[in-house]
Design a protein that fits this description.
The chain contains twelve helices and twelve strands. It has about 375 residues and is of the alpha/beta class. It has a seven-stranded mixed β-sheet, with helices on both faces. It starts with a strand and ends in a 6-residue tail after the last helix. The structure holds pyridoxal-5'-phosphate (PLP). Pyridoxal-5'-phosphate (PLP) binds next to helix 3. Pyridoxal-5'-phosphate binds next to helix 3.
């Protein structure tokens, strides 16, 4: 294989043709501030509103329920801090899970430092929460539930529609971080019943630095970023028209191709899982049945995940390991810890995240390469006892 195989699409994706086509006019001279009254400004405004219609349609929302942001992290911060501020006189309790992305986890942690109380729901070995446990955690002070639609490390899909039904009965708002799910599984905000949903363009072919927050009509979330009052006063700052158009066109494209891509990607993922599970002392992480189509994630007993990712890189395979967090710590990730792995497996994680750009030939190469790499790493490893 002389070309590099990119199997790290949960980290970021290559720009899609739809996104590149949407960006091109802005590289070739198109520009404009959507707040300017002249014709160039009005063109920018038209492009912005057309992007809003497309992004809304892709998730079953109305255009005025879509607010463009700089990405998933900002959307998560806005939803959680905005709700905390909006409802601070009603209560100070937030329910979330022990497997959220740091954009949610650390935002809730920040609020705990400001006097809010948080419950982190435990997950089972597959990364699933218990609805009964969630119901028992709700009390009169609970203002928000924030549960991710699908996990970025192990791919487990959460039962958002069921969570929203329980939240609604108690008048509690529901935010879902759908950064890994949008464009990869069918999603409709009305069917999910969430009040807020975060998405990020670079997880579905748009550039890094643009995202959106869906806010259900009728919910008036205080602004996180103050300034000139753009985005209906919700999110100030001159709009990133080029990025927003790329997000909307890429999203429209992935959603329209979702049925066939879902089948193609799921089939490749299942081949990866079936093949890799033949390697001795290997466990699949995440829900075996209800998981994102593109995430095949494993732990290998007695293997150092960081070393594994480095060797795979030398062999032309880009993947990632959940064993090191973004700050470079060598502690196992909070997600791997939460699913209760035995010690020997905790440092040996591998996430292969694929999408429609991957090919069967690439899957063959990964399956041919990985067993020997694991064997040789184990032979050299002080962690390996067998
Ligand atoms: N939430 C989840 C589940 C993610 O996987 C990520 C990024 O990996 C984020 C939030 C943050 O998104 P962004 O990189 O757009 O800030």
């Amino acid at each position: 294989m002389d070309k590099v195989i990119y199997a790290d699409n949960a980290a970021t994706t290559k720009m899609s043709k739809a996104a590149a086509d949407a960006l091109r006019p802005y590289l070739d001279g198109a520009f404009g501030n959507a707040s300017s009254v002249h014709s160039i400004g009005r063109d920018a405004k038209r492009a912005l509103e057309s992007a809003r219609v497309k992004a809304a349609r892709a998730i079953g929302a109305a255009p005025d329920e879509i607010y463009f942001t700089s990405g998933g992290t900002e959307s998560d911060n806005w939803a959680i801090k905005g709700t905390a501020e909006l409802l601070r006189d009603r209560g100070k309790h937030i329910i979330t899970t022990s497997v959220e992305h740091s954009a949610v986890k650390n935002t809730v942690g920040y609020l705990e430092g400001k006097g809010y109380e948080a419950t982190y729901l435990c997950v089972d070995e597959f990364g699933r929460i218990s609805l009964d446990e969630m119901r028992s955690a709700m009390h009169s002070d609970t203002i928000l539930i924030s549960v991710m639609t699908a996990n970025n490390e192990i791919g487990t899909i959460m039962p958002i529609a069921k969570i929203s039904a329980a939240a609604r009965e108690r008048g509690i708002l529901l935010h879902t971080d759908a950064v890994q799910a949008v464009g990869h599984i069918p999603l409709d905000v009305k069917a999910l019943g969430c009040d807020m949903l975060s998405m990020s363009g670079h997880k579905f072919g748009a550039p890094v630095g643009v995202g959106a927050l869906y806010i259900r009509k009728g919910l008036s979330l205080p602004a996180l970023i103050h300034g000139g009052g753009q985005e209906h006063g919700g999110r100030s700052g001159t709009e990133n028209i080029a990025g927003i158009c790329a997000l909307a066109d890429s999203l429209e494209d992935v959603v329209s191709n979702l049925p066939q891509n879902y089948l193609k990607v799921t089939a490749m993922r299942d081949r990866l899982i079936a093949g890799i599970m033949n390697i001795p002392h290997t466990r699949l992480t995440g829900d075996p049945d209800n998981r994102l189509p593109g995430i095949a994630s494993f732990v290998f007993d007695g293997v150092d995940g960081d070393a594994l990712v480095r060797v795979l890189d030398e062999l032309g395979i880009c993947a990632s390991s959940g064993s090191a967090c973004s700050t470079g710590s060598r502690d196992p990730s909070h997600v791997l810890t939460a699913i209760g792995l035995p010690d020997g497996f905790l440092h040996g994680s591998l996430r292969l995240s694929i999408n429609e750009n991957n090919t069967d030939g690439e899957i063959d190469y990964i399956l041919e390469t990985l067993p020997a790499v694991i064997k040789s790493l184990r032979e050299k490893s002080p962690l390996w006892k067998s």
